[in-house]
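User: structure tokens for this one?
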Amino acid sequence: MTSQTQTTRSPKGQEKHNRMVEAVAKELVRKGFLIKADSIEWSDGVPPVLGENFKPDIIAFKDSIFHIIEVETCSTFQSAETAHQLQIFSGKGKTTVIVPTVCRSRTDLVLKMRESLREWGLQSVKIGTCDPATGKVELPREMDA
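Assistant:
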């Protein structure tokens, strides 16, 4: 995500974020999506700004369906900024948030993210995971075809 008010990640956190964006982008291409990706050197370009100066990490197209994918790290997945950008993105297309599989030995991130989405009134936002160490990506069922 890019914005003027971007949550500051540590250099290590930004590196993990970028590895996750790259892993998700490659997995989507493998599944037949056309994509644009931010935060990494992606040959097909970067996503457009979609509102309030927020640019999603990935936009993906397949079968005339527009998907917006936002990748979050351990330090950002429950932030107010994440809530705000997901609210904006969910009004523009099918939206998925990707969270790490594990943060500091915590494995309940999908449950925590689901609870946050419910609190934010964003039950339509889907959740996927990515292991920044291995690049293993789990996408929501509707994207996993």
